[in-house]
Amino acid sequence: MKRTLQSVGAGGSESVSETVGVIGLGLMGMALVERFHGGGLDVCGYDVDPRRNDLLARFGGRPAANTGDVVCACSRIVLSLPDSDVVEAVLADAGPSLVTGRIVIDTSTGDPERA
User: Residue 101: helix, strand or coil by DSSP?
Assistant: First the structure.
């Protein structure tokens, strides 16, 4: 089931289908997947551990082959990564796909000085 979100722009209200991207499918990432999926949103995700991608599929999500595929498929991306070094590496890898209009939410355990 794909949830339709209401978006209000200059021309009024319009409906858009939404797939949320989640990069990092550890405990926190999978908890987010469960909440998004339970709210009717489709989820596309990726983790470096193939077992976590398999778990995403069992929860009804769509595993991606890499971080770039998540970024290309989703206008809203949630990062749930272990530290700032990993966040920086993921963003560098996804860089060419991060275009204007993409929203990235970082829920990672990171260094505030590097935010």
Answer: coil
Strands, E assignment, 18-64: 19-23, 42-46, 62-63
Q: Check: CATH 3.40.605.10 for 16-114?
A: no
Say which residue, 82 or 113, is predicted with more confidence.
82
Boundaries of every domain in the chain: 16-114
The helix-helix angle for 50-58 and 27-38 (nearest 10°) equals 20
Around Cβ 44, how many Cβ atoms within 10 Å?
Answer: 21
Residue 102: is its pLDDT beyond 80? yes
Which residues touch 76 (CB under 8 Å, ≥6 apart)?
18, 20, 21, 102, 103, 105
What pTM value is reported for the model?
0.83
- Beta-carbon neighbour count of residue 40 at 10 Å? 12
